[in-house]
Amino acid sequence: MKKLIIGISILIMVLSCGTSKTVRTSKKVIKGDWVLSSITYSEAGTYNTTLLNDASKTCFEGSIWQFVPNNNTGVYTINNTTCSTGERYFVFTIQEVNAETGLYDFLLKPTDERHRSETNQGFRLKLSALSDTAMQWQQSVNVSGSSLTINMNFTK
């Protein structure tokens, strides 16, 4: 009986350490190529934002994103010729928030393209909507003492 209880305890610990079914399902949906079609703000106004410490809203709109969930890596490509174009590599870590919706927060960290080593910089983003053809990320920032949400809208 004691061995059975120990065995069940070990099994429970192993299963609780794995990725939940909800996150695994979401990873299947997020896999592939997406276009960052638009960026909006929760408050009206004109904002001079630099997203992911990389480029402006104008540069990011129309960028192409590729997610490879089996190793939590990806690349986005800025195509706007008035901006610094090219590929930018990243890794992402998923943290489940709501098991009912499957939506979660994640950490996106830029990487060195050749070595895939992470930088010391990361960006916490909230996955606020996900379907087979649309995805929305939200990032909360502080602007002059007030909270502002940046909505990044993707299409597949």
Automatic annotation (TrEMBL):
PROSITE patterns named among the record's database cross-references: PROKAR_LIPOPROTEIN
Annotated source species: Confluentibacter flavum
The protein, known as: Lipocalin
